[in-house]
Amino acid sequence: MTIAVGFEGSANKLGVGIIRDQDVLSNVRHTYITPPGEGFLPRETAQHHRECILNVLQKALDEAKIMLKDVDVICYTKGPGMGAPLTVTALVARTVAQIYNKPIVAVNHCIGHIEMGRLITRSVNPTVLYVSGGNTQVIAYSRQRYRIFGETIDIAVGNCLDRFARLLKLSNDPSPGYNIEQLAKKGIKLAPLPYVVKGMDVSFSGILSYIEEHLSGWLDSKEFTPEDLCFSLQETVFAMLIEITERAMAHAKSSEVLIVGGVGCNEKLQDMMKVMCKERNAVLYATDERFCIDNGVMIAVAGLLQYKTQGHTSWAETTCVQRYRTDDVHISWRE
Amino acid sequence: MNNFELIAQGAEARVYKGIYLGKPTLIKERFEKKYRHADLDKRLTKDRIKAECRAIIRAKAAGIATPAIYLANLERRCIYMEYIEDAIILKEFIDKKVSKEINDDRLLNFIAQGLGTIIAKLHLKNIIHGDLTTSNVLLKNIDDDHIKKYENAANNFVIIDFGLARTESSVEDKAVDLYVLERSLLSAHSEIPRLFSKIFDTYQKHYANKNQCKEIVSKYKEVQLRGRKRLMIG
Ligand SMILES: Nc1ncnc2c1ncn2[C@@H]1O[C@H](COP(=O)(O)OP(=O)(O)O)[C@@H](O)[C@H]1O
Ligand SMILES: [Mg+2]
């Protein structure tokens, strides 16, 4: 039996998760929440992680009922993400590894999402829709890589939702996306937003600037309420995501879909995907916010797979990188 | 549609095969997508049926092999078009052939010659396909002799699925069209990484407007760089 700890801090969530082989022993997270109208910036986010990380780690150990000396391998997020928060998290992971003399594994954040999604849902070889604050990708596995079939050509879908929430001054607690989802339930009228799909790629920045341009007019004239706009935004961007997922499935002849990443816990998105899957006799796999939203367990899961097939990461390579593509990682643990 | 038989469910439509006015015909039905809002669904379906018909007619006029359009019905969400007989989808052809003959340059040259010349022709007429993947290319009457004499490869290629096409376009649109193709080849056909650059070479050779060709190439590099540089925060 192998015990792995995962440290995640690439954006505004700080997480520590502990697993024993395939069992989750604990999954603790603390989120840096900014006031309405404000996004999170690297310096303040790093400060938050620095303040919380020891408590989060202790809580994860307590819940798992283990001590650091019982751990077999330390895993941390190497990237992609924001430099300063990544560095804080890596620093603690490296320190713990040194003090307790444990092997350390550097993990790609995106691979963490995918591998944890596969583990939790037991899906075998799904087409993956990876949707979060910084990423929007449709991915399928072949020949030891997760290959990117489609992606955003500008901003990520989560970033689009977050910035829209800021325009409407919605609360960031627990997350902008969650509050958009709740308001959208009361929306009725569909605003005609740009819909941009290029093959298996999508673009969101045009939608955002279109909304920026029309927002005050719409609200002042009462043509659309904030609820209508939340509803319209979700209907439009989610339809785009489902369309490119379906296109990738048709192309790759796949009949399984897995949704991962923070936006993936949106129930409206999951419901829409379910309908599409039914129309093509495919199966949808999704998880809830405990696993969709960035967390430490995902890093432990991917790190442990990597550790078992490739061993630990050499000390000199336990650095951080802001850019780190999903398809850069050699997937040694799959056929 | 009584004597028509469902043959496939593609990326966005169901396709049926049968006989219409005595001719082998394919009906492409963009059935109602229940996952999206009915208004959005209507708007997209209408736009795409129109785009597909318009682009196919333009492409045909430019001498590119595409199925002939027989009938379009916006109310019933479908297009009746020529059924291409004895054809194989390029994706399946590659999966079958190339995995065995991976180092066969003739095969790569054949595909590159066919696609490169056709895409150049489309772009010269300002037609953007919008979804250039190997699932949207048919190969007809293909045998080993054809592959050896690849100069005329374009005669064996039929381009389909113009739902995301546009018939007016900028240099950037053309560059993005090529980038979409490159990415789809890299993801679905990673075993033949050289294919795209061969296609692009042929494209440049056949792009008659040399000044614009230069602009497209440099725009393409820009688009590609943008893709690589995109910051990806988890
Ligand atoms: N004109 C045609 N003749 C023969 N087969 C066709 C024709 N058009 C489409 N097909 C078949 O139907 C499939 C789906 O058609 P396509 O136009 O690509 O629809 P979608 O937008 O749903 O992908 C194609 O991959 C091909 O196998
Ligand atoms: Mg198609």
Automatic annotation (TrEMBL), chain A:
A divalent metal cation binds at H109, H113, Y130, D294. Its EC number is 2.3.1.234. GO terms for molecular function: metal ion binding; tRNA N(6)-L-threonylcarbamoyladenine synthase activity. Residues 24-300 form the Gcp-like domain. Its cofactor is a divalent metal cation. GO terms for biological process: tRNA threonylcarbamoyladenosine modification. It catalyses: L-threonylcarbamoyladenylate + adenosine(37) in tRNA = N(6)-L-threonylcarbamoyladenosine(37) in tRNA + AMP + H(+). Substrate binds at Y130, V131, S132, G133, G134, D162, G177, E181, N266. SUPFAM superfamilies: Actin-like ATPase domain (SSF53067). It is an enzyme of class 2 (transferase). Keywords: Acyltransferase, Cytoplasm, Metal-binding, Nucleus, Transferase, tRNA processing. NCBIfam families: arch_KAE1, gcp_kae1. Belongs to the KAE1 / TsaD family. This is N(6)-L-threonylcarbamoyladenine synthase.
Automatic annotation (TrEMBL), chain B:
One of its GO terms (biological process) is tRNA threonylcarbamoyladenosine metabolic process. Residues 1-234 form the Protein kinase domain. The keyword tRNA processing applies. One of its GO terms (molecular function) is protein serine/threonine kinase activity. PROSITE patterns: PROTEIN_KINASE_DOM (PS50011), PROTEIN_KINASE_TYR (PS00109). Gene3D superfamilies: Phosphorylase Kinase, domain 1, Transferase(Phosphotransferase) domain 1. This is non-specific serine/threonine protein kinase.
